[in-house]
Amino acid sequence: MIANVGAQLGLAYAFVEREIALSKRYWAWEIVWLVYGIVTSLSVAYIGLAAPTITGGSGDTAAVSRLVLYLLVGTITWRFLGLIFEQMAETIAWERWEGTIEYTFMAPVPRVTHLLGMCGATLVRALGFSVAILAAVALFVPVDLSHANALAAAVLLIVGAVAFVGLAIASAVFPLLWTEKGLQMAYIVQAVVLLVSGVYYPTTILPDWMQILSFISPATYVIRGMRDALLDGADLAAVWPNLWPALLVGAISIPLGLRVFLWAERHAKRTGRLKRSG
Amino acid sequence: MAIQVREAKRAEVKSSGRTAALAASDVRKAFRPAKVVPASGTSVRAVDGVSLSVWRGEIYGLLGANGSGKSTLIRLFSTLLTPDAGEVRVFGLDIDRDELAVKRLINRVSVEASFFKKLSAMENLVYAGRLYGVAPDESRPKIVSILRRLGIEDARMKEPLETLSRGMQQKVAIARAFLSTPMLLLLDEPTTGLDVRSKREVQTFVRDLRDEHDATIVLTTHDLDEAARLADRIGILHQGRLVAEGTAEELAAQHGGGTLEDVFMTLTGRRLDDADATEAERPT
Fold it and tell me: Regarding the domain delimited by B2-29+45-114+184-281, which CATH topology (the fold level of the hierarchy) does it fall under?
């Protein structure tokens, strides 16, 4: 049993090692994405700083500082979750493009182990990017984290990552089923999740039908809880109302995402879609 | 784990005389083309009732023009496609029900050398080895040895694959398949597009692989010389059907004597080159 777990972890690590090697080879693109992430987050922070000028408001320093942190927590948390989503959704599309998909699916690796390895690689990359963006933004914009509850924020981030993995695995199915346009479909799903999850605003301002979507997005709870923890110092007990729905979404979405993926793989084998393109 | 399964299987088949490494029974596969007009697509039978057995230690050549169903058959044998009907067994294991166990016994080389282009041959092969349960400590010296034998210099092993010639990439692809010491190796036109020298090197390696490492090899090709030189038995595929099977001599004797080219023409009504050209011109 333990030997088998060790063997599966060894197989999963193959994907982590491969992704690290690919990141090194595509280092210029990694820098592009990092700069893009920093610039986007900084721009959002400057919108917060400029709010009194834009609206003609009072310019109360504490209120502006709170707004900036509110926006930064949203944008950086979304950057973290978005990277998980993107990389997992691109799992299939990337291998199609490289031409390696047939070899990956022909290898004696259980699909769960394959996806576990890709999740591991994705989490390492997303965490690295988010920490770098936060550090870079802090150089330019004063960020007051004196009230923050780091433990609650960390727990929320971990739970959020797990919850998002299920959604991302399910989205990776699009490129498996639709060889040409599947990735575009996954990006549309990601865009809709961004819109309804309250990344830059409270979800209460959304139309009713969008609030229904925000209800099922794990990002809604993670971002809301992160704000409570980092702006108001909420502890684990205080963030529990946002923690349990994220846990619930994760508990449902991961097995569901895996099941959908396995079904899609069988369908791809029946219809001849498990092949390279380009 | 993969290595243990292979070794157990080797010990099992060694004690059991003549063993079918691959047994296909009435295998069928059809594809529906992309529908331009709804409900207008009729399915195309890529493989139509193929039954064949490949014995352990044999090199079996599948000869056919482009579009005859060779690659579809190889993709079915390598678990990348599921048959619509029929059964495929690898060393007695059903490719559908025992998929993971079958995967541990097989490997494949396709006509395109499919790699992560920016990674080096060494990085690609270490990764491939890990997927088959071969740890880097074990795989690295083995990779160097195989690649040297295939004529790839040490310095080139660390260069991104995209900088290597097509012939070299194909050799790396063969090294990848060999690294996992498969009991059944599926070679789908491995020498297509290679220069004469590279072709000969690959063909020699394939024969050595069978002789020295107890591998069973299924080789698809539309090169008559290659089929005659490498294969112990040859199956001729035409429009998804296995229309003839036997040694080159048996085929010649059964179909009016002459060369393999003559046999192919007798069975299909066309020369192999003409058949390829017709398929190439057919809109897809």
Answer: Rossmann fold (3.40.50)
DSSP B257: S
User: Three-state SS for A5?
Assistant: helix
Provide ipTM, 2 decimals.
0.85
Closest CA to B233 of B13, B22, B64, B55: B55
What is the rounded CA–CA span in Å between residue B255 and residue B207? 27
Kindly state whether residue A276 falls inside one of the protein's structural domains. Answer: no
Q: How do the domains of chain B map onto residue ranges?
A: 2-29+45-114+184-281
Å between B244 CA and nearest CA of chain A: 27
B116, B122, B180: best to mutate for the A interface, most A CBs within 10 A = B116
Question: For residues B96 and B81, what is the distance between their CA atoms, to the nearest angstrom?
Answer: 10
Confirm whether A146 is domain-assigned. Answer: yes
Q: pLDDT of B78-114, one tens digit each?
A: 999 999 999 999 999 999 999 999 999 999 998 888 8
> What is the number of domains present in chain A?
1
* CA nearest to A104, candidates A200, A18, A191, A3: A18
Please tell me the distance from the alpha carbon of residue B123 to that of residue A25, in angstroms, as a whole number: 11
pTM, rounded to two decimals:
0.86
Structural domain harbouring A44: 2-271
